[in-house]
Amino acid sequence: MQVTLTIIRYPKRYVFFALSAMAVHRFPFWLNKNITFYKLLGCGKNGSFDKHPDWQQWGIFAVCTQPAATNNSDQQYLMDRLYGSFIGRWLQFFKCETWTIFLEPIEGHGQWDGREPFGKIAKNTSYDGPVATLTRATIRLTKLNTFWKNVNGVAAKMNRADGFITSIGIGEMPFVKQATFSVWQSKELMKQFAYQLREHTEVIRKTRQENWYSEEMFVRFKPLKTVGTLKGSDPLAGKL
After folding, report:
1. What is the pLDDT of residues 86-124, one digit of tens each?
2. N or C end of the chain: which has fewer CB within 10 A?
3. CA 15 → CA 42, 116, 159, distances in Å?
């Protein structure tokens, strides 16, 4: 199994085609028998749960049965191997910048649209190296206002937390299906933020007590490798 998250930035003049890709790319993914799970994603502006979209930035999250060769750093070659030639050529034609992180799921719980994309994984392990986390949820329509009133403060605190490296706000559906992908120097430092920051623990308490989500998933990954750049640089250069 190979898990990848690719973040794609389109030039401003091609934003219409970025939006179109959310529909057009579903067909080649559906035909790709090597991909067992995928999501086409929009991105928020502030690096976490965000209702303000970045129209230039989009994402692909995928799980493949057969790992692709990654020793060639050419972007179209990599996109061809990971997601198929149609998508690879599309991204090249529209002069997209891409950044891909390869991930090994190590622990977590929950479902994504009723599925467990990584099969059964441990709830906890002894691993404490660099860690990437994916926190995603489908927010109940009746809880949208409450959710959005509470998350902005936590996002601002995360960017200043010890051990924080980078984060990206991603989502399948504006306002309703949201996720944060973040990378930390170690699992211990990530847990300090998650369970010792008052604002974050208060949000966790409210999600349970007030039943904000109809579905949620939390997964920790071992980041294996990155290829490409995001806004001109690799956010994890020298970190892995």
Report:
1. 999 999 999 999 999 999 999 999 999 999 999 989 988
2. N
3. 12, 32, 27
Q: Quick one: which of 1, 9, 3 has its CA closest to 228?
A: 9
CA distance 197 to 204: 11
CATH number where 212 lies: 3.30.70.100
Domain of residue 78: give its range. 2-104
Residues 190 and 135 sit within 8 Å (Cβ to Cβ): no
Contact 182, 158 (CB under 8 A): yes
Question: Distance between CA atoms of 67 and 65, rounded to whole angstroms?
Answer: 7
Answer whether residue 86 is part of any domain. Answer: yes
- Could you read off the pLDDT of 198-233 as tens digits, one per residue? 666 776 777 777 788 889 999 999 999 999 999 999
